[in-house]
Design goal:
The protein is mostly beta strands and 400 residues long. It folds into 2 domains: 213 residues, Porin, CATH 2.40.160.20; 163 residues, Beta Barrel (Porin). 10% of the residues lie in helices and 55% in strands. It has 5 helices and 18 strands. The chain has an 8-stranded antiparallel β-barrel with strand order 1-2-3-4-5-6-7-8. An 8-stranded antiparallel beta barrel has the order 9-10-11-14-15-16-17-18.
């Protein structure tokens, strides 16, 4: 069976690696290590919100016969207020960065669990005044303590198919400096849990909630004033990124006459390919480009048979698994980290019954290791919410 906890935990490794990169003092330009030692804060917060009824299990097809439509959660974060003059810090108007833990209690947890998430976050201002700021926040991490789908003991839970999942949280908030050390925060957050189809069923959990919190600074400098540092002149550039990727797609065949456990382990198919993207780094935070992807997906038009109570794949010609796609590409750049959005279109593939739509989506995170080397992870999905598989990639960048 392909899925294992080690694979899922790579989600949090990537999120934490992103945060450590932002902390790296070696990259500073005129920054002092005391900026990081003396400007820590802690921030507890609470939410009470709504669970979107995106599948039958959440709508009430469960043992209790009741919808899972609400939740409460608490979080605690620890982070630092950036105050140095690195270019990315100035362009993001001195954001805060750090780590946190979040615990969720659903109105019905017997079949879903009480997930605990560990995450890294970045919080930056849309607008900052002397004692008030309007902020956004991005958090990525790893959640565990789910009660996942089990064909025997938990057959209704089609939301979460594994004990671990990714955690993605986006929020906006207003922050008011009550004193020089204490801030009161209020805002809204949307949260998504999914294992990226590493193990199915995986229809995910999506939530929205108001949030209130208090931030206590462990230093005495008082509220951060609007940035007055001199931003470096940005010079646009053009990049050609060539990447190879690999992954595995899990497919469940419900109609097969085999034991339940065998059936819902599914069949895992190899997916590998190459991407080429030409992009223009037209602004400090943004890249825009176009590209193509050529890949082999063993799950496309796959056939199986049953022999001695076990599922076996039926071999098919190599060329029937080949697919060619084109896409526009947008990157949101945070120092050496990028968040990618690539709405994609198949332009060449063999026709197959029950094939996925022509239009699909790729959402990913990328970390630049050297100016010419990057690694990343993309989620491939369709219909904006159905996960297919994860693409783990490594690439080379030609910069001009």
């Amino acid at each position: 069976m392909f899925y294992c906890p080690t694979t899922a935990r790579l989600f949090v490794a990537i999120a934490f690696f992103v945060q450590f990169d932002q902390f790296a003092i070696a990259q500073t330009s005129g920054a002092d290590t005391t900026d990081y030692i003396n400007h820590w804060f802690i921030e507890p917060s609470a939410r009470s919100g709504y669970v979107f009824p995106t599948n039958s299990f959440l709508r009430g097809s469960n043992l209790e016969g009741e919808s899972i439509g609400s939740y409460n959660s608490i979080s605690i974060k620890a982070g630092v207020q950036t105050l140095d003059d690195r270019p990315w810090v100035l362009h993001f108007a001195h954001p805060t960065i750090g780590f946190g833990v979040n615990v969720v209690q659903f109105n019905e947890s017997d079949e879903l669990g009480t997930p605990i998430a560990l995450f890294g976050f970045l919080n930056g201002p849309f607008k900052r005044w002397r004692r008030v700021s309007l902020d956004y926040e991005i958090a990525l991490g790893f959640a565990f303590n789910w009660k996942p789908f089990d064909p025997v003991n938990n057959p209704d839970n089609v939301s979460i198919g594994a004990k671990e999942s990714a955690y993605v949280d986006l929020g906006v908030q207003a922050s008011f400096a009550v004193t020089d050390r204490l801030y009161a925060n209020a805002g809204f957050n949307v949260t998504h849990y999914s294992n990226g189809a590493l193990r199915k069923p995986n229809q995910g959990v999506n939530m929205i909630a108001p949030e209130i919190g208090l931030r206590y600074d462990l230093y005495k400098d008082g509220p951060v004033s609007p940035s007055t540092g001199h931003r470096s002149v940005f010079h646009p550039s053009t990049d050609l990124d060539i990447a190879v990727f690999g992954g595995s797609q899990n497919v469940i065949y419900d109609s097969l006459n085999v034991e339940l456990i065998e059936k819902y382990e599914g069949v895992n198919y190899l997916a590998v390919g190459i991407q080429a993207t030409v992009s223009r780094h037209f602004a400090f935070k943004s890249k825009l480009g176009v590209g193509f992807s050529a890949d082999y997906n063993g799950a496309h038009d796959a056939q199986v048979s049953v022999a001695n109570g076990e599922v076996e794949t039926v071999r098919s010609p190599f060329h029937e698994k080949l697919q060619l796609s084109i896409y526009p590409s947008y990157e949101f750049v945070i120092n050496k980290t990028s968040i990618l959005v690539q709405p994609s279109f198949y332009v060449a593939r063999t026709n197959a019954s029950g094939q996925t739509p022509v239009f699909y989506q790729r959402l990913g995170i990328r970390q630049t290791i050297r100016p010419w080397l990057f690694v990343g992870m993309n989620l491939r999905a369709y219909q904006l919410h159905v996960s297919e598989f994860l693409e783990w990639n490594i690439g080379y960048r030609f910069h001009r």
